[in-house]
Amino acid sequence: MKNLGNWNTDLKARYEFFELWAQKGQPFVFHISYFTYPTGFTTSLLQRFSRKAGSPPIDKLEFDFIPTQKSVADISEVVKDGAFITGLYLEGAKWNIEKQCLMEPEIMELICMMPVLHFKPIPKRAK
């Protein structure tokens, strides 16, 4: 539960994100927590990939989640397949950008932001 001030700030950021998308076209990085129904967005990424010639059907796809070392400001082009996503958080862990792995958070650090992730559609892996 957010207090009214934080809720209002979040609503303003969501509105600005979608307004820019409507006016200037697809953004380079999507803030996943701005979506009311993020599963619909991720399904649309799979659907767009499955419509390419030679791609498997949507029910035969899954995501590969590739952490990037770039910040949101450093990304200046739309990724070919999938999307760059930000707005995900870790609770009780921290992402080590240099080693590309999870690590213990700092003392008294409860929530840490994940780096920009590339949600890349791939064919489902064998079990």
Summarize the structure.
This protein is an alpha+beta fold and 127 residues long. The protein is built from two helices and eight strands; from the N terminus they run H-E-H-E-E-E-E-E-E-E.
Count of individual helical segments: 2
Strand content: 25-35%
- The class by helix and strand makeup works out as alpha+beta
**Could you give the order of the helices and strands?**
HEHEEEEEEE
Whole-Å distance between the termini? 39 Å
Tell me the count of domains: 1
Question: Going across the major beta sheet, what is the strand order?
Answer: 1-3-8-2
Helix content: 25-40%
Task: Give the averaged pLDDT, no decimals.
Answer: 92
Largest sheet: 4 strands, mixed
Tell me what you see in this structure.
Helices cover 27% and strands 26% of the residues. With 127 residues, it is of the alpha+beta class. The model has no long low-confidence stretch (mean pLDDT 92). The chain is built from 2 helices and 8 strands; from the N terminus they run αβαβββββββ. The chain has helices spanning 4-24, 38-50; strands at 29-31, 61-67, 83-86, 89-91, 94-96, 101-103, 111-113, 117-123. The strands form 3 sheets. Strands 1-3-8-2 form a 4-stranded mixed β-sheet. The chain is globular, with a radius of gyration of 16 Å. The chain has one domain (27-123).
List the helices and strands and how they pair.
Elements lengths: L3 H21 L4 E3 L6 H13 L10 E7 L15 E4 L2 E3 L2 E3 L4 E3 L7 E3 L3 E7 L4
Parallel strand pairs: 1-3
Antiparallel strand pairs: 2-8, 3-8, 4-7, 5-6
